[in-house]
Each structure stands twice: as C-alpha cells, then as structure tokens.
Amino acid sequence: MFEIKKFDGVTNFNLWQVQMMTILVQIGLKKVVTGKKLENLNQTEWEELDENVLFAIQLCLANTVLQEVFGV
User: Fold this and answer.
1) Whole-number Å distance between alpha carbons of 32 and 46
2) Cα torsion 4, 10, 13, 15: sign
3) Which of 18, 30, 59, 64 has the CB geometry, 3.0–4.6 Å to 25, for a possible disulfide?
4) What is the top-level taxon of the source organism (predicted)?
C-alpha cells in the first residue's frame, strides 16, 4: 500500500490532494472522483466503488479532521 501523511489541517492541502489522487489512480478508483456514474456499471456496483473511495480518503484524514467532517 502507499504511504501518505494524514491530512491534519496543517499539512498543505494541495500537496495532500495530489498525493491522494495518485493513490486513487493506483488503486483504480480515480474514475469515481468525477462523480459521473460509468454507464457499464449498475447502481449497486457504482455505490460500492463510491464507498471504497470514501473509505480510502477517510483513512488518510487525521482524527481531528474526521471529527470536523462527520461531527463525531
């Protein structure tokens, strides 16, 4: 797996974003970031890919940022 410093609100967001996109490309999930459902996927498959992107991004956020984003 790839290493990326968790985004903590202090780290340069633009740099983190580039690294995050690189990871999504490497694991085959960049196509989901566009937000446009691919025609060859049914809704269930699309939702599963969308969740995978969400979870990948969540794993790269510091707990303090997750708390702010999700209000937990």
Assistant:
1) 8
2) negative
3) 30
4) Eukaryota
pLDDT digits (tens, 9 = 90+) for 30-62: 889 887 888 899 999 999 999 999 999 999 999
Cα atoms in the Cβ-side hemisphere of radius 13 Å centred on 6: 11
Q: ∠ at Cα 42 (29, 30), nearest 5°?
A: 10
Map out the domains of the chain as residue ranges: 35-72
Query: Residue 2: pLDDT above 80?
Result: no
Residue 41's closest CA among 32, 33, 28, 52?
32
